[in-house]
Design brief:
Residues 1-19 form the signal peptide. By secondary structure, the protein is α/β, with parallel strands linked by helices. It is built from 3 helices and 9 strands, in the order H-E-E-E-E-E-H-E-E-E-E-H. A hairpin with a 2-residue loop joins strand 8 and strand 9 (151-164). The longest helix has 24 residues, at 169-192.
Length: 201
């Protein structure tokens, strides 16, 4: 009888569902865009950075990857997630960087709808790690736009790709941060080149 009970317990143990892995959440590393702020703001008006737009998988919180070099097929990790959705994560990072650079007297993520302000918007076109023969590369493609009174002053597509020889997700997350910062640095340079009535005098 005891042998039968032990056998049944072993059988039940073998049939039990496997344990579910813990979810891991990732944040981008601290920004490397630490250039000296502008002596005076580039624009006289406040500047609002909207939540970034994203479609499909890019609107989700999971990290995205592909084993296809052409990125024709995308996959999402089930247990490896961004701490915040990329649309929010990139908005907050850009607000911090434009604020630190003193691009405008006020840089914020929201103002009353009737307030007179410049407005920055972004679209996440690509944000994934791509499997290579050795390691990975991260690809970030952001479409950035600056509007004044509903009229576009700047609309540009920015792409950064960074090779990651290591296979760890931590290494790829570091590369994502570097790619985003490189794009935001180029965007800031393009903002500085704009000549509009909203420039600070």
């Amino acid at each position: 009888m005891k042998i039968l009970i032990v056998a049944l317990l072993l059988l039940l143990g073998a049939c039990s569902a496997p344990s579910v892995p813990d979810e891991t959440y990732f944040r981008l590393p601290a920004s490397t865009n630490n250039a000296a702020p502008n002596a005076r703001p580039l624009f006289a008006q406040p500047l609002v950075v909207d939540v970034f737009s994203a479609d499909g998988l890019y609107a989700e919180q999971a990290l995205i990857y592909t084993t296809d070099a052409e990125a024709g097929t995308l996959r999402a990790y089930h247990y490896q997630l961004w701490a915040d959705p990329p649309s929010r994560m990139l908005q907050r990072r850009l607000v911090d960087q434009l604020r630190d650079a003193k691009v405008a007297p006020l840089v914020t993520d929201r103002l009353p709808s009737g307030a007179k302000a410049l407005r920055v918007s972004g679209l996440i076109r690509r944000f994934e790690r791509v499997k290579q023969a050795q390691g990975f590369r991260v690809v970030v493609n952001l479409q950035m736009r600056l509007d004044a009174a509903g009229q576009p002053l700047l609309e540009q597509n920015y792409v950064e790709e960074i090779a990651v020889p290591l296979t760890t997700l931590d290494a790829s997350v570091q590369a994502f941060g570097a790619a985003v910062d490189a794009i935001f640095k180029r965007f800031q340079a393009d903002l500085a080149a704009i000549k509009v009535d909203s420039h600070a005098g």
